[in-house]
Design the sequence.
């Protein structure tokens, strides 16, 4: 599971109001090389919840020097875009789980696939 | 008697005749030929668009569905293998728009036999030879289910030649001089550079495949193939072999339109990305057509909420790689197969030395209750359960409306799009008619999937925010009302 995907995922347990962002508990993380495209990253940033991305990177010990707030004029800041590219697409959680911040419910991640299926009583 | 249409594109351009180490040249004249391609029915225009974009020529869509034709020069031949919307390719030997069939079967078949020696085979055979060279250089893999190699622009290096490959025949069948067009240089010198030298001339093996459509013909496709094939065999002194052939001659008869061609591809191009199949894996050419329809933009978030083996998002991650794909399914086997297919492609890329990571992820989820933020998705693209191949009619009746609602919720209002393939057109039409506040139908493409007629629906997400349209409020009251309708309306 890449952190870009994590940024889109939310807990949908019945009754939960604040199911985002999901907390990450990783037991296996890998870093995979993905071709860098500055335009892709720059256009993706407005679609992200920035603080959730930083928090997730922090949880995995992969934050490095990613700032808490977006830098101005990031569109042309290639160094910054490369850092964002790395955490968005190259860092992957292979094994672990995601946890709903409100209910505590855990969703396992196995082979990089988060299992978000709910039980009947949770829907 | 037969209305002959000469190939209007024959030209000769002299090229420096020196070395032939480059696989793109024949070492001699560059000639122009017409190439035909079979494409998923319904996506002829999409394929023509791709030809225009990647080859720069205008393609002609045939009256015979699922076929397009376009001209190409031999120095650019390799480009045909970059096309992602075509299932099979062939070079045209001759086209007859209004072939006059004789009254009796006997006479018709004799005419076909006589045709064999009159056709302008030369150029087409040159192209076939050139094409065989190209395929060897790219390590093009043989038929079957696997996808070990992909003929695309990623790899230009001449990697291992597959041992299963056919030998490049040395015998040139154009020596008879029956044609008024003859290339001045032979390709023999070129071919020796690329494959193991075979000193003696080998007998070429061939077969004829005939497809016939129309209700006024006095003969069957088998008879035509047999008689035409017999004449071809006599004329060229080739050997007929149904399974291990070097050349496949195509005889396509569609009412009065007759096209004779030579195949440039083997059967399995349309399963190129998938190594781990599922029960309903969609062919890659169809996936490509659907993706082209929704025009993925840079940084689009694209979801396939019922991904099966991941064919659609994987094709997207490769061909439209400036977007990000999330493939999801509720089924264990499906998500595992999807990950296997992704890993397979990534490993292939890593082996070639390129950055292997693809912009795609896989999640296990319930599509009627997506764990995705509201209004965050740009495109939803999927193959919805058909009811015959998977799922059931009754299940679809409940599934489709819930699906559409949930997909509307996650889609970006105003700009979001959906491209949905389904065979259950009645159920879909009903579901969509109740969703006017959330989805608008833009376009429908009628296709053929595994013999079943299906529709690819292109939808646009309206600007209405979710939770505020009458549809949301009504639908959220639960399945009780629908139950009664099921019993009376289901056929």
Sequence:
């Amino acid at each position: 599971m890449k952190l870009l995907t994590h940024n889109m995922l939310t807990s949908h347990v019945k009754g939960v109001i604040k199911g985002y962002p999901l907390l990450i508990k990783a037991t296996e993380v890998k870093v995979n090389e993905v071709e860098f495209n500055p335009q892709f990253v720059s256009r993706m940033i407005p679609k992200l919840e920035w603080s959730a991305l930083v928090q997730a990177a922090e949880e995995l010990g992969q934050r490095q020097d990613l700032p808490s707030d977006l830098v101005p004029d990031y569109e042309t800041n290639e160094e910054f875009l490369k850092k964002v590219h790395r955490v968005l697409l190259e860092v992957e959680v292979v094994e672990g789980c995601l946890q709903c911040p409100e209910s505590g419910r855990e969703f396992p991640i196995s082979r990089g696939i988060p299992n978000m299926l709910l039980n009947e009583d949770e829907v | 008697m037969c209305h002959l249409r000469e190939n209007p594109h024959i030209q000769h351009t002299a090229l420096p005749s020196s070395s032939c180490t480059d696989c793109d040249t024949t070492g001699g004249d560059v000639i122009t030929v017409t190439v035909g391609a079979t494409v998923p029915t319904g996506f002829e225009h999409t394929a023509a668009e791709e030809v225009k974009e990647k080859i720069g020529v205008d393609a002609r869509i045939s009256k015979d569905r699922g076929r397009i034709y376009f001209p190409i020069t031999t120095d650019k031949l390799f480009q045909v293998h970059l096309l992602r919307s075509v299932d099979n390719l062939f070079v045209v030997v001759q086209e007859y728009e209004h072939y006059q069939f004789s009254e009796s079967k006997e006479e018709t078949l004799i005419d076909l036999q006589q045709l064999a020696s009159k056709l302008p085979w030369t150029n087409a055979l040159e192209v076939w030879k050139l094409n065989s060279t190209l395929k060897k250089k790219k390590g093009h893999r043989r038929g079957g289910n696997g996808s070990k190699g992909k003929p695309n622009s990623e790899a230009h290096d001449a990697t291992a030649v597959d041992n299963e490959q056919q030998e490049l025949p040395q015998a040139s069948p154009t020596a008879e001089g029956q044609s008024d067009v003859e290339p001045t240089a032979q390709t023999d010198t070129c071919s020796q550079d690329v494959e193991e030298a075979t000193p003696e001339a080998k007998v070429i093996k061939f077969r004829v495949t005939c497809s016939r459509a129309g209700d006024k013909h006095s003969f069957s496709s088998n008879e035509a193939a047999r008689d035409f094939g017999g004449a071809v065999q006599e004329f060229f002194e080739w050997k007929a072999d149904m399974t291990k052939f070097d050349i496949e001659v195509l005889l396509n008869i569609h009412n009065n339109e007759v096209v004779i061609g030579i195949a440039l591809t083997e059967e399995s191009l349309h399963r190129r990305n998938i190594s781990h199949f599922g029960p309903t894996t969609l062919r890659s050419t169809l996936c490509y057509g659907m993706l082209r329809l929704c025009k993925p933009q840079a940084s689009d978030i694209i979801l396939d909420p019922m991904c099966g083996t991941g064919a659609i998002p994987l094709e997207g991650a490769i061909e439209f790689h400036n977007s990000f794909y999330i493939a999801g399914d509720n089924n264990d086997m499906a998500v595992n197969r999807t990950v296997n297919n992704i890993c397979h492609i990534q490993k292939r890329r890593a082996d070639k030395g390129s950055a292997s990571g693809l912009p795609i992820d896989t999640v296990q989820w319930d599509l009627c209750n997506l764990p995705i933020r509201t209004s965050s998705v740009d495109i939803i693209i999927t193959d919805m359960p058909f009811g015959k191949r998977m799922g059931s009619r009754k299940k679809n009746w409940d599934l489709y409306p819930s699906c559409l609602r949930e997909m509307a919720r996650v889609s970006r209002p105003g700009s979001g799009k959906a491209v949905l393939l389904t065979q259950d057109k009645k159920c879909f039409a009903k579901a969509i008619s109740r969703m006017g506040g959330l989805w608008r139908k833009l376009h429908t493409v009628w296709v053929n999937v595994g013999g079943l007629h299906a529709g690819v629906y292109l939808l646009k997400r309206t600007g209405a925010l979710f939770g505020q349209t009458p549809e949301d409020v009504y639908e959220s009251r639960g399945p009780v009302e629908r139950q009664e309708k099921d019993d009376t309306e289901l056929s």
The mean pLDDT of chain B is 78. Residues 332-351 of chain B form the longest helix (20 residues).
